Amino acid sequence: MIIVSKNMRLPSLFSLALALSFTATALPASDHAPPPAKEASTYAAFDAHPDNHVAIAAEPFDTKEKESIFRVDYLKNGFMPIRLIVTNNGDRPISLVDARINFISSAGDKIPAAEPEDVERRMTHVGNAGKKIPMPAPLPPMGGKVKTPDSKIEQDFSEFEYSAIAVEPHTTRAGFLFYDMEGLGDNPLRGAKLNLRELRDADGKEMFYFEISFDKYLDRLH
Fold first, then answer.
1. What pTM value is reported for the model?
2. Helices 150-160 and 116-128, packing angle to 10 deg
């Protein structure tokens, strides 16, 4: 986690963000890795701002086959990994230091990206459901505590989570965000969008928001 002072002047903050971004996207160390990221506009679901020379794509990993690169079955536990691909075709860097990236459901629910502890809590709850530990009479059975694979979750987030806080000129950066899909039905992507706000150009000016419709992704599958 990177913590910066709100009183830091923007040029200094952005310089820090740019410097850190060069080390923010190390290759995953797991047995599997996602395919190399392509230019964002080549994906089914993307939004482009030609004036800013920036395109951003979102690729859901919504099948068992696609999510096999991870150590944990996130889909089974109600979370969907979504790969974020950011391409900067301009001559100056852009900053995601202040970016807000939310999943917007078809009903308008705003869902922020999950943290590792969110997944761990869900898996602990699911693992404990219905499990009892017998106790000597006359004591009643106690609820069992099942150890969650928290180290695997931490490793996945460390290696795969989107972490490039700046995107250099003529560069594509990619990584995953994990969203809680519980309660959103059998097809949570239909009618949903990924909304990105507070991206900034090299002068610190906020760029117009990006909105990526997942219907484009679903329609390409059929």
1. 0.78
2. 150
Q: How far apart are CA 64 and CA 80, in angstroms?
A: 11
Domain boundaries, the chain: 19-221
CB contact at 8 A, 21 and 167: yes
Say what the pLDDT of residue 24 is.
Answer: 44
pLDDT in tens, 161-198: 999 999 999 999 999 999 999 999 889 999 999 999 99
Name the helix (H) or strand (E) containing 217.
helix 215-221
**Is the distance from CB of 104 to CB of 215 less than 8 angstroms?**
no
DSSP letters of 44-104? SSEEEETTTTEEEEEEE--STTGGGGSSS-TTTTTEEEEEEEEEE-SSS-EE-TT-EEEEE
The CA distance from 154 to 162, in Å, is: 14
CA–CA distance from 47 to each of 28, 80, 84, 163, 214 (Å)? 26, 20, 12, 20, 11
Question: N- to C-terminal Cα distance for the chain?
Answer: 40
- Looking at residue 172, its amino acid is T
